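Duplicate of earlier report; Ubiquitin-like domain-containing protein input re-posted below.
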Amino acid sequence: MLVQKRQESIGDDLISIRVSTFANFHDLSIEATSTFGELKMVLSLLTGLEPKQQRLLFKGKEREDDEYLHMVGVGEKDKVLLLEDPAFKEKKLLDRNNISASCLTIIV
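Output:
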């Protein structure tokens, strides 16, 4: 019986994906066996949004942080949609309004 040894090489399981936001997109390479949570960590460096502020959608469904890219079918040149979580967006707007309201100038 002949058995062929499988050689592990770095970068063989990298896939190129495009992550689109409302205004722009990011092309990046990531391991196919990564989770959506790990993808969020990479995107936080690119977008400035914390992972808990991000919502990732693939094939029209929001994906959980512990789901693996390859298990849900993410492959080479696929597109993932990145949205800002509406709860954090609303909180950010409220915080901005509170700051501007508390910084009123009084002229005597």
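The first strand starts at residue 14 and ends at 20.

Merging into the original ticket.
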